[in-house]
Structure formats: C-alpha cells, structure tokens
Amino acid sequence: MADETKNTTENTETEAVAEAVEDIEDAAEELIEAADDDTDDEAADDESGDEEEEEEEEKAEKKEGNFINDVIEIVESTLLTVFVIIMIFTYLLHPVNVVGSSMNNTLFDGNRVFMTTVYTGPHYGDILVINNDMAYFLDENGKVIEKDITGSGLKECIIKRVIAEPGQTIDFDVDKEQVIVDGKVLDEPYIRQTVISDGGNFNFPITVPEGYYFVMGDNRRESADSRNGEVGLIKKEQIYGKAIVKYSPIKEFKFLFFKNK
Fold first, then answer.
1. Local structure of residue 142 (DSSP, 8 states)
2. Which of 1.10.1240.10, 3.40.50.300, 2.10.109.10, 3.40.50.1240 is the CATH number of 98-255?
3. Which long-range contacts (CB under 8 A, 24 or more apart) does 61-67 make?
4. Catalytically annotated residues
5. Backbone phi, then psi, for 38, in 5-degree steps?
6. E-assigned strand segments in the chain
7. Span 12-63, pLDDT tens digits
8. CA–CA separation, 172 and 170 (whole Å)
9. Widest pairwise Cα distance in the chain
10. pTM for this one?
C-alpha cells in the first residue's frame, strides 16, 4: 500500500513536472511569437518610415525642379522681351526730338516722335526725317546738280512733309498763295501759314526727278525746306525714316499718318 501510494505520488509529481514544462514551453513559444510580431511591426514601421522619407524627398525634388523651371521660364521670357524691344528700336522705331517751329502746328519745338525705317513710299503727306548733308537742284535742262553746303547751319537732320513725289510737277501761285501739283491746287489742312513766295531757287514749274522728293514745312513762312538754297530736292538716300507718331508730351499724343483725299 505504501509502495502504491509512493508510486502514485511519484507519478503525480512527474505529471505535474511535465505539465509545468509544457506550460513553460508554451509560454516560451508565446514570447518568441510576440517577439517575432514586434520585430515584424518594427520592420513594417521602418519600411513605412522609409517610404515617407522617400515621398518627402521626391516632393522636395519635385518642388525644387518646379522652382528651377519657373526661374528658367522667367529668364527666357525676359530675354525674349529684351530682344524684341532691341529689334524694334533698332530696325523699326527710333525716337526723334523736334527742334524749331517749321512744322507748326503739327509738331512743335521739343516734341518727340517715333520714326520708322520700315515703310512704303514715301508718298505725299508723309512726314520725313532727313539727313540734309547735300543740296540738290536742277539746271536749265532739268538735270540734277549738287550743291555743297559744308559749313551751313542747315547741314543737319531736318523734319519736313512730302509735297511732290518723283515724276510729279510742282508749281506755286504766289498771288493766291497756293501750291499746285500736277495742275491741282493742294488742299492742305495741316499748314499753319500759306506761301507768299516760291523761294526763287527753282524755275517753276519743275518736274521732280526720279529718286528725289520736294518737301516743305507746315509753317510755310518759317520753314527752310526744298525752296531754300541750302536744302533743295531731297534724295531718297537722305531719308532716315518716316515719322509715324508724336508721343511726347503724352497729352498731345497723335498718329502722324496722312490720308490723301
């Protein structure tokens, strides 16, 4: 009986030890699984953090790239604008300062106009900026002769209006103070004063030779123009350009195109 009880006790103790061992093993497994789970979570967190960092880096790079592109576009636009302005003021428009009263009341002393070097013609009514470096007249046979005006106060840049073109015949009726081109009295709404003489440097009527122009100021009695002995006919090569707009003073802004009726 004692042996049986001893055996039973030993068996019970053995079973208890076995169960305890199993419990310990289970607990160990659970700890290992928990550790694995924590490791996975940490790895996942690390991966998530890496992804966020990559996204932030991509956003930063994209933002930097956009900024650089914007700067490049601004620089390109600025350079293009500057280039266009340079081209315009080099080949199309040139500022010119008006000196004197010979073009009153269209232009006054101190006015500023834009002149263009790209134009058709010139034609009657156009206002020209002229390099008066030489005077041209006609001999008794209608042949062009040159007159050296070195030292003259009129050897300068002048601004006048085209009155007669190549091939046209110009004459003056001094008594009626009229200008006649191709037998027609000109209707001149732009003039300040009429003519009281023809100037005496040509034997009128004359036919303007090919390549030359007869020009006059709008203020006829105070204008040194083609009637003057130091101006004469204007050769086409003497023309700097055509005045197209008065821009200063701004309150007197005016386009200078003339419609020939």
1. S
2. 2.10.109.10
3. none
4. 102, 160
5. -60, -40
6. 93-97, 112-116, 127-131, 135-138, 144-147, 157-164, 169-173, 178-181, 184-185, 206-207, 212-216, 234-235, 239-248, 254-255
7. 444 544 454 455 556 556 655 654 555 454 444 555 556 677 777 777 667 7
8. 7
9. 172
10. 0.69
